[in-house]
């Protein structure tokens, strides 16, 4: 062990970590990222959003009762019928309480840093946004009258992506599977949790993880990057199509006139 600027480091562990980052760069065609700025920025925005909830809540200290939840939380009818599209993403920066924030923040800290180092800043941000949007779109599709907050859709997307990418790198993913199974169990067993956001985010993470992990590389890195960008655009267009065309048709078919 050698002394480092913060605590101690194991040279062999550091070398192994660097080897895995280089392996990920070769496999996924990205750039080596040493500092996960996107992860830190999102965590900071989540904290700012929660502090704003506390500052505007009545009584003070009950973040879930803040008017920000009503104005910026995810609500399918408001998002589509009233054209308040910002709800699809702003809801991810609001939380129902301290434990809700701490759980999502801790998962973001652990999974986000690793994924950002594997994928690079841009693709990681696209993954996070796609997960948050997929969770919101799924909620709008199946529970349009439900008001929900939290970054859980994005977090489940990270779970799905890290599982697929880790398997591609031949890493042991059993712990991720255990954590994912536990969280899915909590999703359906504990009342008051938005299962739609979790499932929507997970599906998006698995799909985009497969795109990043198994995209062919024979034609070179630039062609791979172009194809990746094209598939990301297609994914966002698909979410928009579901939101604008499928959701209203499903509502009119199910809800009483």
UniProtKB/TrEMBL annotation:
GO MF term set: serine-type endopeptidase activity
Membrane topology field:
Multi-pass membrane protein
Which stretches make up the Peptidase S54 rhomboid domain? 83-213
SUPFAM superfamilies given in the database record: Rhomboid-like
Where found? Membrane
Q: Name one Pfam family in it.
A: Rhomboid
Superkingdom to which the source organism belongs: Bacteria
Q: Which GO terms describe its cellular component?
A: membrane
Instruction: Extract one GO BP annotation from the record.
Output: proteolysis
Gene3D superfamilies (alphabetical): Rhomboid-like
Q: Which UniProt keywords apply?
A: Hydrolase, Membrane, Protease, Transmembrane, Transmembrane helix
Regions that span the bilayer: 37-56, 92-112, 124-143, 149-166, 173-190, 196-215, 227-247
Family according to the record: Belongs to the peptidase S54 family.
Designated name of the protein: Rhomboid family intramembrane serine protease
Organism, by scientific name, is: Nocardiopsis eucommiae
Its organism's taxonomic lineage begins at:
Bacteria, Bacillati, Actinomycetota, Actinomycetes, Streptosporangiales
């Amino acid at each position: 062990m050698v002394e480092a600027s913060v605590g101690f480091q194991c040279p062999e562990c550091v070398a192994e970590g660097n080897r895995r980052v280089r392996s990920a760069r070769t496999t996924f065609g990205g750039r080596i990222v040493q500092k996960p700025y996107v992860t830190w920025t999102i965590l900071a925005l989540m904290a700012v959003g929660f502090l704003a909830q506390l500052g505007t809540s009545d009584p003070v200290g009950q973040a879930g009762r803040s008017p920000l939840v009503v104005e910026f939380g995810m609500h399918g009818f408001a998002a589509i019928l009233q054209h308040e599209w910002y709800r699809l993403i702003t809801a991810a920066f609001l939380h129902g309480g301290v434990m809700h924030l701490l759980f999502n923040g801790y998962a973001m800290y652990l999974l986000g840093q690793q994924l950002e180092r594997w994928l690079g800043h841009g693709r990681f941000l696209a993954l996070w946004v796609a997960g948050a949007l997929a969770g919101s779109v799924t909620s709008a599709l199946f529970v349009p009258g439900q008001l929900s907050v939290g970054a859980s859709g994005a977090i489940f997307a990270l779970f799905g992506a890290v599982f697929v990418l880790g398997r591609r790198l031949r890493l042991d993913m059993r712990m991720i599977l255990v954590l994912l199974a536990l969280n899915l169990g909590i999703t359906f067993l504990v009342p008051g949790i938005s299962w739609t956001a979790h499932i929507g985010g997970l599906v998006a993470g698995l799909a985009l993880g497969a795109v990043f992990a198994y995209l062919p590389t024979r034609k070179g890195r630039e062609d791979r990057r172009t194809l990746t960008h094209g598939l990301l655009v297609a994914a966002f267009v698909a979410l928009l199509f579901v939101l604008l065309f499928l959701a209203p048709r499903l509502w009119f078919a199910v809800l009483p006139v």
